[in-house]
Write a structure and sequence with these properties.
By secondary structure, the chain is of the alpha/beta class. The protein contains eight helices and eleven strands. The mean pLDDT is about 95.
Length: about 240
């Protein structure tokens, strides 16, 4: 089965409060975006579509992508105004004979080949799956006044990560349907925040939850940079010990 990945790196990273967009910030001497791209490069995934801010494409290609000699990048496309616009543009740039699509946030540098393998096996069986982890803490649903309303069963609550993995033609058609019905979705107050919501809203499949790792964090704030550096150091120590 032919596999492809969309790696999303088109955001502005405003919460990082830095003059450098977070996807290009160096963590332990390497631009953030390279961490996940290099995992896909080593993996079984056949091709990668990278989504970047349009004004950054030329510079990123020259300064980051070409020096890293990443051979699996099939296309680099400009992002849209929202995450789901960027996903649709990335999916449309994949090869037409793609069977399975991985959708990954480039701000999550700590995916690994085991995560990709588990997701691949799950999507072959269920047709749609997302990587995530069971939550460790109790979750509260707030009411309109900011008070604790309800408490969902912690054993049934997951922290959702990426990649999120689908049969390619199916998820592409659902994203096209989302584009056609976007005005109505907005009017109905539905906020599409990840790819599984597209399947839940427009598709007919249940989305299987597949365990990733707690290290598969999203880099969003300056504190996350410190956390990422600690994760990298710990991984190096474990590698030496093994």
């Amino acid at each position: 089965m032919k596999t492809a990945a969309v790696v999303l790196a088109a955001g502005s990273g405003s919460r990082m409060k830095s003059s450098v967009k977070k996807q290009y910030m160096e963590i332990c001497g390497k631009p953030l975006i390279l961490y996940s791209l290099e995992v896909f490069e080593r993996s079984f995934v056949d091709e990668v579509v990278l989504v970047l801010p349009e004004d950054d494409i030329e510079e990123v290609m020259e300064k980051i992508i070409k020096p890293a000699a990443l051979k699996k990048i099939k296309a680099v496309v400009p992002g849209g105004s929202t995450r789901y616009h960027s996903v649709r543009l990335g999916l449309m740039a994949m090869s037409e004979d793609t069977d399975i699509a991985f959708i990954h946030d480039g701000a999550r540098p700590f995916i690994d080949e085991d995560i990709l393998e588990r997701g691949f096996e799950a999507v072959k069986e269920y047709g749609a799956c997302v990587i995530g982890m069971p939550v460790k803490d109790t979750i509260k649903i707030a009411d309109e006044d900011g008070f604790a309303g309800t408490t969902p069963d912690r054993d049934k609550t997951w922290l959702i990560q990426t990649p999120q993995i689908f049969m390619y033609k199916e998820i592409l058609e659902l994203y096209k349907e989302l584009a056609e019905k976007e005005s109505q979705i907005i009017a109905d107050g539905i906020n599409i925040t990840d790819d599984s919501m597209v399947m839940e809203t427009f598709g007919n499949r249940r989305v299987k939850l597949v365990q990733g790792t707690y290290d598969n964090v999203k880099i969003t704030t300056p504190d996350d940079i410190v956390l990422a550096e600690e994760i990298i150091k710990n991984k190096k120590v474990k590698k030496i010990e093994n």
